[in-house]
Design goal:
10 strands; disordered N terminus; 2 domains; disordered C terminus; alpha+beta; 4-stranded mixed β-sheet
Length: about 300
């Protein structure tokens, strides 16, 4: 199965796609009983977007950390090592772990957006001189898929609505925008630090661990959130994801998307300066003591 595409992630299909727009018509149908039923699930190469993970981990009744460990594998989305995750498949062949030979997809109602789109691929891009991203589509025709030969014509817009992919696109779009912004910023941003990548991974993929992060004592000392807002972030995966996107824009790109507590930055810098001074004094004392160790027996108390 071909992957949803967003800019720098390589297109995984050997077949060159043709770009489509929302009003472009194409022929396709998939149903139990078609000769290729489950064939795409046996050639699975699925990159997961944040909302995909939320839907799946809630479907399976597990935490995001448990889901990531059991059902995904990490990969790097660019040369800097920006973290991404793919669906885990069987060891011998790339067969989706949620595929049943007779029933097909066992998580169908909560299947990832890439699966919903197939055989359409989402293409997200942003021109160098523009600040908004554009979404286009590609029609991927692979030899194993017989759905292209079915006598059913519809537009890309109709197919998106039929597959209920619009909600996924809305909640994943900020994720694609972050990736595009990181690439287009280039040298202006440089290679993000390991801490920045850890934050990106936690916000985008590990929603339950991100909730723990938000509940750390220092977080609300810095970010000005009402009790109602904070309660919403704690109980709602989607609202937490939306907030996480804003936080990443602020941390990674300096956008003032979340208000800060008054003088919070100055207080943090002062605290860090005190910690740094204490650390330097401790290190200096340790160095002096280490230098004196061979001569301790010669030093009077």
């Amino acid at each position: 199965m071909s992957d949803n595409q967003f800019d720098e992630i390589p297109f995984s299909s050997p077949v060159q796609p043709n770009q489509l727009e929302l009003d472009t018509k194409f022929c396709f149908n998939c149903y139990p009983g078609i000769s290729c039923f489950n064939a795409c699930c046996k050639q699975a190469d699925i990159t997961l977007a944040p909302y995909d993970i939320i839907r799946l981990k809630n479907r399976l009744g597990m935490s995001s950390s448990e889901f990531l460990k059991k059902h995904t594998v990490p990969f790097e989305m660019d040369a800097h090592g920006m973290p991404g995750v793919k669906m885990r498949t069987t060891d011998d062949d790339p067969v989706c772990l949620f595929m049943d030979e007779e029933k097909g997809c066992t998580v169908y109602e909560d299947r990832p957006s890439a699966c919903r789109y197939y055989p359409i691929a989402l293409l997200a891009s942003r021109k160098a001189d523009e600040y908004h991203d554009e979404q286009h589509y590609a029609h991927v025709q692979e030899d194993h898929c017989m759905g292209h030969k079915e006598d059913r014509e519809l537009t890309v817009a109709e197919y998106r609505k039929e597959q209920k992919v619009e909600e996924f696109d809305e909640l994943n779009r900020s994720f694609y925008q972050l990736i595009l912004k990181k690439k287009s910023s280039g040298p202006a941003v440089g290679k993000p630090s390991p801490t920045s990548f850890q934050l990106f991974f936690m916000v985008c993929y590990d929603s339950d661990r991100f909730r723990e992060f938000l509940n750390a004592p220092n977080f609300r000392n810095v970010y000005d959130l009402t009790d109602e807002e904070f309660e919403q972030l704690n109980k709602d995966d989607v609202e937490r994801l939306k907030f996480g996107y804003r936080l990443l824009k602020q941390v990674l790109f300096g956008e003032n998307s979340i208000p800060l507590v008054k003088d919070a930055y100055e207080k943090r810098m002062a605290e860090r300066a005190e910690i740094l001074k204490a650390r330097q004094e401790a290190e200096a004392a340790y160095a002096r003591a280490k230098d004196q160790e061979p001569f301790e027996k010669y030093i009077d108390d």
